[in-house]
């Protein structure tokens, strides 16, 4: 659904308005992260956790109604042959990698099975790369990586999202298991990140137009990583107001980075390749978040093993936050490689002469 919805946006919005559109279109998606933690915490604290899943039913019905009312019947002008072999390789490979990474450090599956999943996933991915270079219409077009802005946004964005993906896993776990908060109190703190993200949407266009994508992506990656480092300084006796404000500010900068990456990804992609670009981008986003959660879980397991403990304590989370912050910081070299004028048509910033 995500690549199709994004493709509708890219087909109907001029490039000069893409940053503004990307900012606004994500606001409804942020309502969930704003309302979800406190509402989910309330349900888990005072009712059964099973009720959480029933929330999807009225939201899904509303989505079906709105799509029929508001979205036109847009179709591709040409047809490409279906890459069945590529579909099989990527389907098995990505499913195995995602499921394997999800279970790294969890203890839910035997270690041998997790390793087997990762090996199968890596092998299928390797064979797909070879397959894609031999066919004229691969299901995932790796030729997109020859576009400099797309490659920087995809690879740098993957590393940045790994740290971002670990945060919704590590933070509630630290607040509830490490600090002893109940789910409702934890949710009332963690929703601050999404609230900060919503406030950013009003300023993204002006910031990117003034500074350009390269400066924003490099500077904001460093600032966002510093906030992740800062979360390692939280202690059980840290005032909740301090935690809330730190999460609020961090959410602002992380959202600015995501809006910048999402907009830059399509800045130089030809219209004929937009459909393939949205698919590859969405795949990379989902995989990076999965790897981020797995990395956070693995870091916790390593710290626990080194300490020789059997149950998590607050101190176990501090090295994990430092680790995922360092991974997010690794995105900076990929953004530094970009031209200062990268994405100028989308950002609206004058090209330097």
Could you give the order of the helices and strands? HHHHHHHHHHHHHHHH
Structural class: mainly alpha
Oligomeric nature of the chains:
single chain
Low-pLDDT windows of residues: none
> What share of the residues lie within helices?
over 70%
The count of strands amounts to 0
Shape: globular
Give the name of the CATH architecture of the largest domain: Up-down Bundle
β-strand amount: under 5%
- Calculate the mean pLDDT score and round it: 85
Number of domains: 2
Break the fold down into its secondary structure elements and pairings:
Layout: H1 2-12, H2 18-25, H3 27-46, H4 51-54, H5 56-70, H6 84-102, H7 111-132, H8 148-178, H9 183-200, H10 204-211, H11 213-231, H12 240-265, H13 274-307, H14 317-329, H15 332-336, H16 344-347
Helix pairs in contact: 1-13, 2-12, 3-9, 6-7, 6-13, 8-9, 8-12, 8-13, 8-14, 9-12, 10-11, 11-12, 11-14, 13-14
Describe the protein.
The structure is a single chain. The radius of gyration is 21 Å and the shape is globular. 38% of the residues are buried. The two termini are 41 Å apart. The chain folds into two domains: 2-80 and 143-347, MFS general substrate transporter like domains (Growth Hormone, Chain: A); 83-138. Helix 6 (84-102) packs parallel to helix 13 and helix 8 packs parallel to helix 13. It has 16 helices and no strands. It has helices at 2-12, 18-25, 27-46, 51-54, 56-70, 84-102, 111-132, 148-178, 183-200, 204-211, 213-231, 240-265, 274-307, 317-329, 332-336, 344-347. The protein has 353 residues and is mostly helical.
């Amino acid at each position: 659904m995500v690549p199709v919805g994004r493709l509708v946006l890219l087909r109907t919005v001029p490039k000069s308005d893409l940053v503004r559109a990307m900012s606004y279109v994500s606001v409804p998606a942020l309502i969930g992260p704003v309302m979800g933690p406190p509402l989910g915490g309330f349900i888990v604290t005072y009712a059964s956790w099973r009720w959480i899943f029933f929330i999807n039913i009225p939201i899904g019905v509303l989505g079906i109604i709105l799509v029929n009312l508001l979205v036109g019947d847009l179709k591709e002008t040409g047809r490409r042959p279906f890459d069945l072999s590529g579909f099989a390789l990527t389907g098995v490979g990505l499913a195995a990698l995602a499921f394997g990474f999800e279970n790294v450090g969890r203890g839910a599956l035997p270690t041998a099975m997790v390793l087997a999943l990762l090996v199968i996933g890596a092998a299928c991915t390797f064979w797909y790369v070879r397959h894609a270079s031999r066919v004229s219409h691969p299901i995932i077009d790796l030729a997109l990586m020859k576009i400099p802005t797309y490659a920087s946004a995809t690879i740098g964005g993957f590393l940045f999202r790994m740290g971002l993906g670990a945060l919704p896993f590590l933070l509630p776990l630290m607040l509830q298991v490490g600090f002893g908060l109940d789910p409702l109190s934890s949710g009332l703190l963690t929703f601050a990140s999404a609230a900060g993200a919503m406030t950013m949407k009003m300023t993204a266009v002006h910031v990117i137009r003034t500074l350009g994508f390269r400066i924003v992506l490099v500077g904001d990656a460093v600032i966002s990583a510093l906030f992740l480092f800062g979360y390692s300084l939280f202690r059980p006796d840290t005032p909740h107001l301090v935690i809330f404000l730190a999460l609020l500010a961090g959410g602002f900068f992380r959202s600015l980075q995501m809006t910048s990456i999402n907009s830059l990804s399509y800045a130089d992609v030809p219209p004929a390749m937009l459909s393939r670009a949205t698919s590859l981008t969405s795949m990379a986003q989902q995989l990076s978040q999965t790897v981020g959660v797995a990395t956070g879980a693995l870091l916790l397991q390593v710290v626990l093993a080194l300490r020789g403990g059997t149950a998590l304590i607050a101190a176990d989370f501090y090295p994990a936050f430092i680790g995922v912050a360092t991974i997010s910081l690794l995105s900076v070299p990929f953004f530094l490689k970009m031209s200062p004028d990268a994405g100028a048509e989308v950002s609206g910033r004058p090209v330097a002469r």
